[in-house]
Design goal:
Shape: globular
Strand content: 5-15%
Largest sheet: 2 strands, antiparallel
Number of strands: 2
Radius of gyration: 14 Å
Structural class: mainly alpha
Distance between the termini: 15 Å
Number of helices: 6
Number of domains: 1
Helix content: over 70%
Length: 116
Amino acid sequence: MLRLIIHVLSNALGIWASARLVPGIYFDGGWGWLILAGAVLGLVNFFIKPIVKIISLPLIWITLGLFTIVINVLMLNLAAKIVGALVIETWTAAFWAVVIISAINYAVSLVIKEEK
């Protein structure tokens, strides 16, 4: 349960950092909305992303895995459509937001693994 909470919080932190650093990403909400956006992104990645990856497996193979970046951008855009407080204007902005969110999630996962 603690890992789930940490994952939601790291997603929320990534969304917040993306909104601060990337032009074209806007977040119009408080911390409650930010945590909700992190939870929605986590749920979208948990339930929908595996299905999309299976369907697009040939494209992932042909591009040597680079198509997963497109899938991550699509998942972030879907989460933004669900949470109205998160606005993504362009695909380029979504790409850089995915890079920031992934980097923050990776850093948090390294810290969590060190604590065990």
